[in-house]
Amino acid sequence: MGLAVKAVLALGIDGLAQWVIRVLVTFVVVSVAVVLIVVQTAATVLTGGEADHAAAPASTPIAVSPGAVQVPSAAPTLNVGLDSQIIQFAQAWLGVPYLFGGCSRSGVDCSCLVQNVYAAVGIHLPRVAVDQFNATTSISDPQPGDLVFFANTYTPGISHVGIYIGNGLQINAPTTGQVVSAAPVFTGYWGAHYAGAHRVRG
Question: How many distinct structural domains can be found in the chain?
Fold first, then answer.
């Protein structure tokens, strides 16, 4: 007589049913635990080790007056890790509609985009492009994560800002009817209005 038949006879129908239920429950519990571990591990890997950190910056950043920004004697090179974080946060805004005076994911303008991105990495900048220009240090060779400024666009003087991402490109919130996108810095419309690159102080 086979082992299975002997087991059924030894346990009886009720005993066998209970044993099958216990095995199935154990299997389900173990499977759920494995799935949870895999999901948590994947989330941690995808967010760079910060599973609970929101990729999107806050929709209402903290505004700081220009005088609150520390001014060292020279413009330091941005930390490589910080550069990549700034670019990642800027990329997270791609496709958001431009809205003059807007400061949220439903609509954002150029200076609030910059303010939100930098606030997401713990650096607080003023709200308006010209104030951001005055609160940062002029540099001749922009690196990814630096700011690029433009003049005489919709108004005289410094009137537009973007985040330099390398290869002659910026991420910016351009104008009404457009969305946050990558655009050339040194050619075309923006090249004709280019006013220089700046690095955040302090």
Answer: 2
Compute the chain's Rg from CA coordinates.
27
Catalytic, out of 110, 112, 116, 198? 110
- Residues above pLDDT 70, as percent of the chain: 61
Number of Cα atoms under 13 Å in the Cβ half of residue 17:
3
Residues 33 and 129 in one domain: no
Distance CA 69, CA 144 (A): 21
110 is catalytic: yes
**To the nearest whole number, what is the mean pLDDT of the chain?**
78
Q: Out of 112, 116, 160, 198, which one is annotated catalytic?
A: 160
Q: Indicate which CATH number applies to the domain containing 188.
A: 3.90.1720.10
Task: Clarify whether 124 is annotated catalytic.
Answer: no
Per-residue pLDDT, averaged over 71-100, amounts to 78
pLDDT given at position 62: 32
Do 141 and 195 lie in a common domain? Answer: yes
Task: Examine the residue annotation and report whether 134 is marked as an active-site residue of this protein.
Answer: no
pTM of the model: 0.62
| 138 and 71 assigned to the same domain | yes
Q: Which residue among the candidates 103, 112, 116, 172 is catalytic per the annotation?
A: 172
Q: What is the mean pLDDT of residues 39-51?
A: 43
Domain that holds residue 117: 66-200
- Dist. CA 79–CA 145, nearest whole Å: 9
